[in-house]
UniProtKB/TrEMBL annotation:
Organism from which the protein derives: Paenibacillus thailandensis
Protein's recorded name: YhgE/Pip domain-containing protein
S-adenosyl-L-methionine listed as a keyword: no
Keywords: Membrane, Transmembrane, Transmembrane helix
Origin: domain of life: Bacteria
Biological classification of the source: Bacteria, Bacillati, Bacillota, Bacilli, Bacillales
Length: 388
């Protein structure tokens, strides 16, 4: 027993395995605790577009809301422009005060309705925060309607004084919220698909890269370092296409939502999976198997900074900026656009190609500066006379 324990602990792989278990705990604890610290205090970084088409009460309310809301507000004159920004995730919600708002709010036969649009093609937390904000905004408008000078606004609409006063007094119960969803997500299982695909793809690429590195160490002396690099690149490309086909097919078979179609999802997953492969193998080419520590850090950082779990708008400037340099950010953004709807993914594809090209270039430089290992000696040929 003691001899087996001593022999086992003398193996480098045993020591690496124990260190890796410790490093997972340390890296994830440090990164996640620092990245998510203060997230709930940064809701002011979320953006709401306010579109007002009502020249009376709506004008007064939009100005007041822009000053008092605990979010960054942008006054937009065109509703179509605001909705396009919402679709591209420039805004987290669009608030629209229609042209007939004052008229309906003052009418005994109608109610003044404020329209809200929320883009569900985002982390689930966005919908929760913005739905609560819409209800709160409507409640605030109702509660402050009379005190904020509504009577004067209605009197300016050439109403009799008695009618204006009655309308002002009743307005606190006559404003409703019409909340609409853009790019709706069909269930929590679909909501989690972007994170799942990124997590499965990067972990798979990371483990695959570790095994490729061990194979490289075993065959490079005979095959040559540049031939080994070329073979790994070919295997990466073929594996990315086939693995992405399996992953995308399983999501489809299990009820996945594909707003832009199966083919788009397959091709895009192939692209970001291939990028993950080259990025993870870059660290292994630079540092050998010790590069796995960098990949573990990269895994943790990408999970918190990509926007798959918590909106990137709620993170600190450090993690937001770091996320712009990492492939998972663009993988999550493209996944949400393809799965649920949104803007074009050309920008995400271009960013992934740039990151991939950078990783390939760094790998090539690392290989160029490494010495070619000595070829293993071939067994000497035994003369036939001695064989007898």
């Amino acid at each position: 027993m003691m001899q087996a324990l001593r022999l086992f602990l003398n193996r480098p792989t045993t020591k690496v395995g124990i260190v890796t278990a410790f490093m997972f705990q340390i890296i994830f604890a440090v990164i996640w605790m620092t990245a998510y610290d203060g997230v709930t205090d940064r809701t002011s970084q979320l953006r709401i577009a306010i579109v007002n088409e009502d020249g009376q009460l709506g004008k007064q309310l939009s100005g007041k809301l822009a000053e008092e809301l605990p979010f960054e507000t942008v006054v937009v004159t065109d509703l179509g422009e605001a909705q396009a920004g919402l679709n591209n995730r420039d805004y987290q919600m669009v608030m629209h005060i229609p042209a007939d708002f004052t008229q309906k709010a003052a009418s005994a036969d109608a109610t003044g309705s404020i329209e809200y649009w929320i883009n569900e093609s985002n982390p689930a937390l966005i919908k929760s925060i913005m739905s609560g904000a819409a209800a709160q905004i409507t409640g605030e408008i109702n509660s402050q309607a009379v005190a904020s000078g509504v009577q004067a606004a209605l009197s300016g609409a050439q109403m009799p004084a008695e009618q204006a006063a009655a309308a002002a007094a009743s307005l606190s119960e006559r404003v409703t919220a019409d909340i609409r969803s853009v790019n709706p997500v069909q269930g929590m299982n679909n909501q989690m698909v972007p994170m799942m695909m990124v997590l499965a793809s990067f972990v798979g690429a990371m483990i695959m890269g570790m095994n490729f590195q061990q194979s490289t160490m075993a065959v490079q002396a005979q095959a040559g370092k540049w031939n080994t690099v070329l073979v790994k690149a070919v295997l990466n490309a073929v594996s990315a296409v086939l693995v992405a086909l399996v992953g995308t097919s399983l999501v489809a078979l299990l009820g996945g939502q594909f707003e832009q179609g199966f083919l788009h999802m397959w091709l895009f997953q192939s692209l970001f999976l291939l990028t993950f492969m080259f990025v993870s193998q870059m660290f292994l080419s630079l540092f050998g198997l010790a590069g796995m520590l960098f990949n573990i850090m990269l895994l943790s950082v990408q999970l918190v900074s990509s926007g798959a779990i918590v909106p990137r708008e709620l993170l600190s400037d450090f993690y937001t900026g770091l996320g712009r340099l990492l492939p998972a950010t663009y993988a999550v953004d493209g996944n949400m656009n393809i799965l649920f709807g949104g803007g074009p993914i050309t920008g995400d594809c271009a960013a992934l190609l740039l990151i991939m090209a950078t990783a390939m270039a760094v790998t090539a430089v690392a290989v160029a500066f490494k010495k070619q290992g000595a070829k293993a000696a071939l067994p000497a040929q035994i003369p036939a006379s001695e064989a007898r």
